[in-house]
Amino acid sequence: VTGERGSTPRDTGSWILLTKNTELGTIGGGELERTLVEAGRAMLDGNGAWSRAPMQCALGPDMRQCCGGVVEVLLEPVDADALDWLSKAKQQLALEGYIRIAFDKAAREPRPLIITGERAEDHVAPD
Hints:
This is XdhC- CoxI domain-containing protein. The protein is α+β, with helices and mostly antiparallel strands. The protein has 2 helices and 7 strands, in the order βββαββαββ. It has helices spanning 30-44, 83-96; strands spanning 3-5, 15-18, 23-26, 53-58, 70-75, 100-103, 112-116.
């Protein structure tokens, strides 16, 4: 989750890491999570473009979720180039039991900036 407005199931920095067989993390469940997991699995199966895919979802009209807010997400393919930040994420997750992944949305190529147990919004560059 790279941004949110209004009532949403999870905050900026919430994430899911998908492999072909597992899911780690959550963005709050419901239709939003189901839709994004399907898109991620299509990417993994070669049925979708293997490229960064920003999305904006209106939870009421688009997802039929009662929250009613708007969630911005980024589907990010992860390959061997991500091993450094994934290793840091794994260490932080083991220490704190949860993590948030922050992105600089203004960057041309958004990459994880900070992996923290604190609120991600405190560390993300403003729009």
